[in-house]
Design goal:
It contains 15 helices and 18 strands. It is an alpha+beta fold. The chain folds into four domains: 87 residues, Uridine Diphospho-n-acetylenolpyruvylglucosamine Reductase, domain 2 (2-Layer Sandwich); 119 residues, 2-Layer Sandwich (Uridine Diphospho-n-acetylenolpyruvylglucosamine Reductase, domain 3), CATH 3.30.465; 110 residues, 2-Layer Sandwich (Alpha-Beta Plaits); 84 residues, Alpha-Beta Plaits (2-Layer Sandwich).
């Protein structure tokens, strides 16, 4: 627990109403969206501005109190679970859109801004912020930056890091740094902006971000392609890209996922096929029409049994909304839903999907698979019950084997969910000992006493990798 004299200093900084060490208040922030991880913080603190953040960090540094910066807690790697106690830092007061700069095509925000609120604000001005995590209705920009969040539009437009051009951050010693700026070019020194994006709050606390915007696309169209052969669907993905077409969205859903999503959304999704591809293209009308026609040809040539173009914007929106609801739909079925994001080169999607199905059968667990097929980012999702210890043990073994298979196919253990606590034991499989050592050296130089989100990214004990035969 935090000593009384230190607690008093915290209250002096943020006010009584912004310091909560009650059992109820702490319980609410003892977990995030990751199943099977929970740990009580010592207190929950809500600074009102960056100056209060600085004073709080200095106080934590002096007293070696862990700090866990937190957005809405939607992450899926236990990245904001306070596993070593300390304070959870909330940004509910630092939630302002500070500027929309139409001349430089940027927006500057505080970390507590809800992603969708910002997107709607810039779209009202005819501008476009492409990153669209499925949790955007509740996730915050600060959380997106800490996890380097992806989304359905990642294939064509990239992920959060591709739009963060400047940051203001408080370092673990209380110093404020500003990185980047409203610049098209800037190679002055190390790229600290990119270093901070995706660092999961282990290097510093983001207090302001400037994000790049682009003009709103003129139009968009959506296709739903149906398959009775998963490998044919995977071939279609590769063939579309090989035809030099980069769709905005290129999503994959297997039959178990389709059945659950349709039961949830009830928009007429087919449930009697093995897989669907949900494909969207945007841009100038003539380009969209040309690309959609070619995409339909590719899908038909690759044995799609049906290729349907959404006949209205409402229908297209319903399809995309249904896809975004996949996790919510699946979560209704069992008490525990474990969603992962093994990522492989898109040419290996069919091999990865088949491997996931075989692994699920081997360990007698139910796994539904959907994801961003265009960038090889698949979301195998297991429906289970954490109270069933035997089944949970089999689930963990299954996912361990799935991670190994992804790496074997040239992929990675996480494409967009982050490492946090959940993936930390497997990080060495991807980076090797030298890679982990290099990252630790960076961490130690920023945070020598390890107060910034300790226990995340770096595992106390790495898993010994057992190579799975091809």
């Amino acid at each position: 627990m935090i000593p009384e004299n230190v607690k008093h200093k915290f209250i002096q900084i943020v006010g009584t109403e912004n310091y909560d060490d009650s059992n109820t208040g702490r319980l609410v922030y003892s977990y995030d969206a990751t199943p099977q991880f929970q740990s009580m913080p010592d207190a929950v603190v809500s600074p009102r501005n960056k100056h209060e953040v600085v004073e709080m960090v200095k106080l934590c540094n002096e007293n070696k109190i862990p700090i866990v910066p937190r957005g809405s807690g939607t992450n899926l790697c236990a990245g904001t679970c306070p596993t070593e106690g300390g304070i959870v830092l909330l940004f509910k007061h630092m939630n302002q859109i500070l500027e929309v700069d139409e001349e430089n095509l940027t927006v500057t925000v505080q970390p507590g801004v809800i992603t969708l609120d910002m997107i709607q604000t810039v779209e009202a001005k005819g501008l476009f912020y492409p990153p669209d995590p499925s949790s955007m209705k509740i996730s915050t920009i600060g959380g997106n930056i800490n996890e380097n969040s992806g989304g359905l539009r990642g294939l064509k437009y990239g992920v959060t890091r591709d739009y963060v051009i400047a940051l203001e951050a408080v370092l673990p010693n209380g110093d404020i740094i500003r990185t980047g700026g409203k610049l098209a070019k800037d190679v002055a020194g190390y790229d600290l902006t990119r270093l901070l994006v995706g660092s999961e709050g282990t290097l510093g606390i983001i207090t302001e971000a400037t994000l790049k915007l682009i003009p709103m696309p003129e139009t968009k169209k959506t296709i739903l392609a149906l398959y009775q052969d998963i490998e044919a669907a995977a071939r279609s993905v590769s063939k579309i890209i090989a035809n030099k077409i980069i769709p905005t969205t290129l999503e994959f859903l297997d039959q178990p996922t389709l059945q659950v999503v349709e039961d949830f959304a009830q928009i007429g999704l087919p449930t009697n096929v093995q897989a669907v591809l949900l494909i969207e293209q945007d841009g100038p009308e003539e380009v969209v029409d040309r690309d959609i026609k070619k995409i339909a040809e590719v899908c038909t040539n690759e044995e799609a049994i049906s290729v349907q173009v959404a006949q209205s914007e409402e229908h297209a929106m319903a399809l995309m909304t249904a896809r975004r609801s996949a996790l919510s739909a699946l979560a209704r079925l069992k008490p525990t839903t474990i969603l992962e994001d093994a990522t492989v080169p898109r040419s290996e999607i069919a091999n990865m999907v088949n491997a996931i199905n075989q692994i699920a059968e081997k360990y007698e667990v139910k796994i539904c698979t959907f994801g961003h097929a265009g960038d090889g980012n698949l979301h195998p999702t297991c429906l289970t019950d954490s109270r069933n210890h035997d089944e949970i043990e089999r689930v963990e073994k299954a996912f361990e084997e799935i991670f190994q298979k992804a790496i074997q196919l040239g992929g990675t253990i996480t494409g967009e969910h982050g490492v946090g606590v959940m993936k930390a034991p497997y990080l060495e499989w991807k980076l090797g000992e030298a890679g982990i050592a290099a990252m630790k050296a960076i961490k130690d130089s920023f945070d020598p006493i390890n107060i910034m989100n300790p226990g995340k990214v770096f595992a106390k004990d790495s898993k010994k990798r057992v190579v799975v035969a091809k």
